[in-house]
Amino acid sequence: MIVPCGHGSLVLGVHRAFMSLSMGGAVSHVPRILAVQSEAYSSVARAWADHIDEPAPVAEPGGTIAEGIATRLPLRGRDVLAALRASGGAAVSVSEGEIRRALVRLLRLGFYVEPTAAVGVAGLELLRLRNEIPREASRVVVVLTGNGLKAGRRIVDAVETASEVQG
């Protein structure tokens, strides 16, 4: 499961839900959970890469169109990292360009989502490029977090910027 991550409540909720389902026998195992952050706010991804248990606050955050996960320091960062480890997952960060391109891809597929939702798709594409998720993987679920109705102007700006970069 690929999940956008700010404070990490979605990561923790997915992990707890699958733990309960597993203990109750409804599923055979807890899936691998992959947290994706914007590079501008990547405290969890940096802690993951540095193999430490507690994320450090982002000292000088940049801007991001994924404002739903723009968090300098997750309130329960230690718990988020523990859940990722327990699931065999990981944490990565993606650039603004990757987020914009993923948003355009989702729009072309008919998904009108907020830019934060595109972070998960950008993460999937990055993890596939790194061969951490093979293209023939049996099941990959990317959580799309919110609709685009609340982010119309940011979506238009992202599409225009992505178009300028691509062509």
Question: How would you describe this protein?
Answer:
With 167 residues, this protein is mainly α. The chain has one domain: Rossmann fold, CATH 3.40.50. The chain is built from 6 helices and 3 strands. Helix 1 links the parallel strand 1 (2-4) and strand 2.
State the secondary-structure class. mainly alpha
> What ranges have pLDDT less than 50 throughout 5 or more consecutive residues?
none
Look at the structure and give the CATH class.
Alpha Beta
Helix content: 40-55%
Mean pLDDT: 91
Shape: globular
Secondary-structure element string: EHEHHEHHH
Number of helices: 6
> What is the strand tally?
3
What portion of residues belong to β-strands?
5-15%
Major sheet: order of its strands?
1-2-3
CATH architecture: 3-Layer(aba) Sandwich
For the sheet with most strands, the description reads: 3 strands, parallel
What is the terminal separation in angstroms?
32 Å
Rg over alpha carbons? 16 Å
Number of domains: 1
CATH fold title: Rossmann fold
- Oligomer kind: single chain
